[in-house]
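Suppose a colleague, Dr. K., hands you the sequence of a protein chain of 487 amino acids and asks what its three-dimensional shape might be. Before reaching for any lab equipment, you can write down a predicted structure in C-alpha cell form. Begin with the sequence itself:
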Amino acid sequence: MAISARAPVEAPAGSFGSDLPGFLERYEREFPEEVVHIEKPVNAEWELTALAMRLEKAKRFPILVCHDVRVNGKKMEMPLVTFLMASRLRLARALAVDARRAGITCYERVQSRLKSVVVPRSDAPVKQVVEKGADIDVRRFPAPLHHRMDPGRYITEGLFLTFNRESRLDNSAMQRGWLSGKDEIRVWLGPSTHNAHNLREYEAAGEDMPCAYWVGHHPLVLLGAETHVGPDESHYDAAGGTLGAPLRLVPSETLGENFLVPADAEVVIEGYMPKGQRKPEGPFGEYTRHVGPQRWGPFMKVTAITRRKNAYWDDVMVGHTHWISSLTKEGEAFRAVQRAVPGIKAVHVPMSGCGVAHVYLQIRKTVEGQGKVAGVAALTSFFGLKHAFVFDEDIDIFDEKEVLLALATRFQADRGMVTLPGMTGSPLDPSSQDGTISCKVVFDCTKPLGKVFAERLSIPPEVAAKIDPLEIVGRERWEKIPVEPWG
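The predicted structure, expressed as C-alpha cells, is then:
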C-alpha cells in the first residue's frame, strides 16, 4: 500500500459532486494517490485504528476504502470509508479555497443557508434497500471497535437526527452510538446539546422521541450539518449552504411523512427513544484522546434501516485527526473577534488542541490591550474552547513552531495571561473535576505597542529568493535526507 507524498495544491477545484459516491469518484480521478483501496481483510476490532494511527504519525491522511472488513471473522457486506475528513487540504479543495482560509470560508457557506427540497422515494438512493421487522440487525454494519476500553462497535460519523417537538425544526449532530443489540443503539447525548433538549421536551410530554441516524454523505454536507446553529435554525439548510445546493430530503419509512431524512445519504437508521428509560453507555475513547467514563444514557429502538444498494459505511477515527467541527469553529471565532478587534487577520483551531480546545489568533494590534480583548472574545465564541493564544501579524499561526516561539519569547504570565474560572466547558474534558466547569485562559503573546522590541532574525529577501536548495545539494541527494517531524 504505497502512499505518495505529493506536494499540497493551493488552488482546489471545487465541491466534487453532491453525495459520497460522487465525491469519491471525482476526487480519486483528480488525486488518485489520495484514495487508497484496501482489498485485504481487515478486522473491525482495532486493526483499522492501528492503520489510522500509523498514517497519522507519518502525517499522511488519504481516504481509506476498506472492501473486506471482518467482524468475528465474517466479511461485512458494505465497504467502509474512513479518514474522509482527516485532511484539511482535501476539505479546502472541496470548498475551492486555500487551506488557510478553509475555516472562514466554511463558516461563510454555513451562513448562506439554502432551503432543502423534498423528493419522492423513487428519486432517493437511500430508499433502494428497505429493511423492517425481523430483517433489522444493526450489528451487520462494518463499524469498527476503535479503542481498547470501548464496550463495542460504534457509529461515529453518523449524524443523530431529531426534530423539535414544538417548532418541528430539524437538528443533526455527530453523537456517538453503540451498536449494542440487533435493534438497539445506545446514544451519548451531551446534556447541553439541542438533541438532549429535544429529548427532555418529549419526555416532559410523556412521549417517546422519534429519531434517526444518517450515515455517509458529501464532506461539505457533513461540515454544514455538524456545525452549531441556533435552536431556531435548520441544520439541513446549513448543510445546503456549505454544499452550495439544496439538500435533498425524503420522508421516513416508519416515523411519518413529516420526519424527513437525507435522500442521498448512504444509510438511514430510523427509530425512537423510549421515554424515561436509560441504560449504561461507554466507556469510550473520545476526541480528547482520552477514555471517557461509562454513563447512564438514552437508547434508540430501531424500527427501519434504509440504504443504497452499494452503500458505503462512513466512519470517523474518533480521537484522531479530523476537521469535522474545527473549520466552522474557526469561522465562528473569527467573526466573534472581528466585532471586538477589527484587526483580526486569521484564526486557526489546531489538532494539538483536539480541534476544539485551542484557538490561535493573528491580529494587527493598534491599541494596547487588544490581545486580551481578542482572546476573551474568542473564548466565548463556541462551546468547548479552553485556551486562546493571540499573536502579531509576523507569526504564522498555522506553524506551531512559530506559535511556540512567540509563546517562549513574547509572553509573560504576570501581564499577558487572563483567566476565566468557573466557565461552562466540555463534559468530555478529563481535567474538569465535575465534568461541566472549566477555567478558560487567554495567552496574550503580542508585542507591546510603542516600545522597542527585539527584532526577529532575517536575511535580505532577495537572497532568500535566489537560493534553491535542490540546485545546490542536488535533487537525488536532497530526497535521501531523512525527514524528522520533531525538528
